Amino acid sequence: EIHEPKDFNIESIRPPSPDMLSKYKHANATIVALVRNHEFGAIGRTIRKFEKSFNEKFNYPYTLINDVPFSDKFKDRIQAFTKSPVEFVTIPEELWSKPDSIDVEKQTTEMNIMAEHNVAYAKMESYHNMCRFYSGNMFNLPELQKYKYYWRIEPHVEFYTSINYDIFKYLEGTKKVYGFTISLYDISETVKTLWTETLKFLNTGDNYKYINKNGAFQWLLSDTQLPENNQIAGGYSTCHFWSNFEIVDMDFLRSEAYTAWFNHLDSTGKFYYERWGDAPVHSMGLALFADKSKVHWFRDVGYFHDPYYNCPKTSHTRGCEPGQFSKWDHLNDQNCMASWIDYSIDDLDAIY
Ligand code: GDP
Ligand code: MN
After folding, report:
1. What residue ranges line ligand 1, CB within 6 angstroms?
2. Model pTM greater than 0.80?
3. What confidence score (pLDDT) does residue 347 get?
4. Complex ipTM tops 0.90
5. Is 154 noted as a catalytic residue in this protein?
């Protein structure tokens, strides 16, 4: 049976009684989702499940984000799913669209090659915009400046456990900067040169100073458990935290180190010439620039995004099979959690 984290006095951050909720002292945090207008039903269902699992006990505000203005229909329907405030944000063009510096001919050539190799979303420019936005621009939205933490949700995900403590206050109290539920290997073709570009950055000037001495550098390089059908990407194992669920201290993403590194990555144009995902980008940034003890596996939170699960055995798990990793057996070897545990958790017993 899996219990809540032990490295903090969880009792101090239990939900307030419903009549005290309006006076509850929240952490400085918001729930975020980037969504399209036609996804109102799917994000509505996610919000309904998320409320039941966590947020109806705490009432954190939502920030819904779109590259075009949300329709009145979208806004009207969403507010019916939660009692918490919902802010609707339109992304300024310069934080979303492909930069002018991108060589369109090169982009077309590279995208065609990735498509021939069956890379999902290879030729879908909006998907590349989305990955770049979540990697380096989202936390610069004016509407998010007032917040320190965000918890990302998506359409079509499931929550299987009752979260009976304030996760944001847990991060605040432990000074952790990142929380995840699932980690897995990536398609190496999407991040072919993410690591070699990163080494170029680290080898420029005195950029090495940004590396955290207690970081998880070695985890990025580990290849001992890589499945046969996966490939190392220029030295990077491709193991990463799956960012469709992530709880983040934006001070980390807004830091000088992360910003300087992201600006280098962005200058290569490879969010378009390759298909760098925000998941490997966030993960690599954390491994390099954060203390590994400040990255937290929310082992106790039951979660699903097709086709992967984090399904803990707890007394209140409902709807998933404890221990199951994937909907499909042949994908079970994509789990790289063991690698993260090996390289980054010094004493598992101390945590759970
Ligand atoms: P996948 O999980 O990698 O297959 O990607 P998704 O299709 O789930 O996209 C990730 C998130 O970004 C979801 O919350 C989508 O709703 C959102 N998203 C993806 N593309 C766009 C876009 O072009 N515009 C907007 N507004 N949201 C997008
Ligand atoms: Mn998704």
Report:
1. 33-36, 39, 66-67, 126-127, 130, 154-155, 244
2. yes
3. 65
4. yes
5. no
